[in-house]
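Q: What would this chain look like folded?
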Amino acid sequence: MLDPLGIKVLCELSVINATMKPISVINSIEVPEGHEEMAIKVRDIYINYFKSKPGFVSSTFYKSINAENTFNFVNIVVWDSYESFQAVVNSGFDNEDGLNEDQMKVLGKGFPDPIKVSPGQFEVIRND
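A: My prediction, written as structure tokens:
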């Protein structure tokens, strides 16, 4: 038999876990020929920065095997919650340059022209 305190703690933990769902930031990256090394270098700088921040879980970087793909690189960054992600990009949402409080360009704006990034934030709805 659980005491009322034990039940309350379990309920509070469930609420916290429900609001702290992991998210994936999926960046589709269009890299013109001759700019691949720059894209990889910039991506690595940002991942090293993200690794120093609370809530960073992992990053996986993909290169297309099909030359005709518009997006020839995809980077997926997993955060433990949307709140952790927001804490890193924070003011990047509020200014044109995408600079956060650490003066890092975020939200896909850290790559130089002509590299184009289309960022998006997603949560897992199925995991088969």
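The chain is about 30% helix and 25% strand.
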